[in-house]
């Protein structure tokens, strides 16, 4: 059901059961799939691909031109996954010639006033709380929770199943399964509550905790800690994910806990 007071470009591809409320604007080269609700005063620019059963609240701006002086008008896109909720005044920029796309996964919640800059890749089942500011080229993996008013530096990578404290200044990569807090951002244990909620066993949680004891609590540099983890701890999906994440980090990872 499309309101007559909404503007929809004739070249936009809108599924039949999409609801678009008054005063919203849908530009050309936009695709909106079944069951999605577009609230009033939403603007969806070129290159947006909106999945099924998405809810976009008033004032949101999706697939806007990147706030990047290097952007020269190249043809880029924005993807929003199924069942994602985008609350009031969220702004999401489309990609540049780095990744050519900005992606927000499925089953995510982006609370009011979140900014997602160009070329960001956000995984599935993420919660981004109010007023989080995410700079360009950031990667946030599945099941991450970012506390309100946090600011994430460009090119940072946030691992899966992480939880970042509100107001965090994220300048370094945050390895998977961890909690991060304080200033500068510091390891604050593993995200055991989140892991239990998602079906991780006590044995698996203990295994992850032991890996991070080597990395953050024994006073070792990262290279030595990872070598010992490989030598002394049994291989597993989680162990190898943590090792690969830290070894492939371009910006380096957050600090270990200090008293």
Based on the model shown, name its key terms.
single chain; alpha/beta; UDP N-Acetylglucosamine Acyltransferase, domain 1; 2 domains; 4 helices
Task: Explain the overall architecture.
Strand 26 (178-181) and strand 27 form a beta hairpin. It is built from four helices and 27 strands. The model has no long low-confidence stretch (mean pLDDT 96). The longest helix is centred in the last third of the chain and has 16 residues, at 202-217. The protein is elongated. The chain has 259 residues and is an alpha/beta fold. The strands form three sheets. It has a ten-stranded mixed β-sheet with strand order 3-6-9-12-15-18-21-24-26-27. The chain has helices spanning 192-197, 202-217, 222-232, 237-247; strands at 7-8, 13-14, 19-20, 25-26, 31-32, 37-38, 43-44, 48-50, 55-56, 61-64, 77-80, 85-86, 91-93, 101-104, 109-110, 115-116, 121-122, 127-128, 133-134, 139-140, 145-146, 151-152, 157-158, 163-164, 169-170, 178-181, 186-190. It has two domains: 7-194, Hexapeptide repeat proteins (UDP N-Acetylglucosamine Acyltransferase, domain 1); 199-247, Up-down Bundle (Udp N-acetylglucosamine O-acyltransferase, Domain 2), CATH 1.20.1180.10.
Brief digest:
About 15% of the residues lie in helices and about 25% in strands.
């Amino acid at each position: 059901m499309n309101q007559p007071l909404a503007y929809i470009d004739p070249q936009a591809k809108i599924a039949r059961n999409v609801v678009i409320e008054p005063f919203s604007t849908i530009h050309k080269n936009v695709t909106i799939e079944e069951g999605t609700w577009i609230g009033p005063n939403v603007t969806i620019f070129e290159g947006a691909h909106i999945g099924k059963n998405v809810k976009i609240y008033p004032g949101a701006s999706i697939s806007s031109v990147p706030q990047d002086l290097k952007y020269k008008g190249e043809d880029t896109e924005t993807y929003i996954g199924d069942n994602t909720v985008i609350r009031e005044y969220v702004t999401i920029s489309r990609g540049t010639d780095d990744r050519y796309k900005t992606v927000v996964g499925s089953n995510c919640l982006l609370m009011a006033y979140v900014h997602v800059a160009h070329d960001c890749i956000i995984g599935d089942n993420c919660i981004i709380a109010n007023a989080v500011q995410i700079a360009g080229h950031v990667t946030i993996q599945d099941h991450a929770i970012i506390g309100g008013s946090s600011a994430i530096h460009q090119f940072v990578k946030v691992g899966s199943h992480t939880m970042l404290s509100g107001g965090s200044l994220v300048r370094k990569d945050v390895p998977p399964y961890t909690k991060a807090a304080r200033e500068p951002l510091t390891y604050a244990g593993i995200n055991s509550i989140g892991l239990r909620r998602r079906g991780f066993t006590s044995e698996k949680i203990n295994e992850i905790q032991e890996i991070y004891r080597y990395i953050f609590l024994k006073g070792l540099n990262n290279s030595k800690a990872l070598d010992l983890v490989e030598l002394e701890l049994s291989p597993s999906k989680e162990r190898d994910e943590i090792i690969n994440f830290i070894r492939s980090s371009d910006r380096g990872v957050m600090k270990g806990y200090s008293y």
